[in-house]
Amino acid sequence: MSTKSSSIHGRNEVKMEGEKRKDVESESTHVTLNVKGQNDEGVKVFRVRRKAKLLKLMELYAKMRGVEWNTFRFLSDDGSRIREYHTADELELKDGDQIDALLPQQSGFGPSTVFRV
């Protein structure tokens, strides 16, 4: 392994050859995610930046469906909820991972429901 030393503006910098710097990602800056709804509308494919908040994906998906983004509950493959402030890197999402867009369940049972026997 060799090293090179250079002087830039009076500072010495050492560059290591043959090793990758740890702060530089070896992966791409984008990830391709599949968003699947509850109905048979198919899977929508989105390409997003790894460090961008997933709010952009949520807003675009909801706009395609004609509703507000917070109408849906977005879940990852393992069933955990995805919030608007999460990023693909934070959730460790990889190319081809699926996100489920679910509508909240509305129940007809509640305090106003009276059963007569």
From TrEMBL:
Stored InterPro entries: Rad60/SUMO-like_dom (IPR022617), Ubiquitin-like_dom (IPR000626), Ubiquitin-like_domsf (IPR029071)
Domain Ubiquitin-like: start-end pairs: 31-108
Chain spans, region Disordered: 1-31
Biased composition (Basic and acidic residues): 10-28
Record-linked Pfam families: Rad60-SLD
PANTHER family (alphabetical): SMALL UBIQUITIN-RELATED MODIFIER
Protein name listed in UniProt: Ubiquitin-like domain-containing protein
Organism: Arabidopsis thaliana
Species classification: Eukaryota, Viridiplantae, Streptophyta, Embryophyta, Tracheophyta
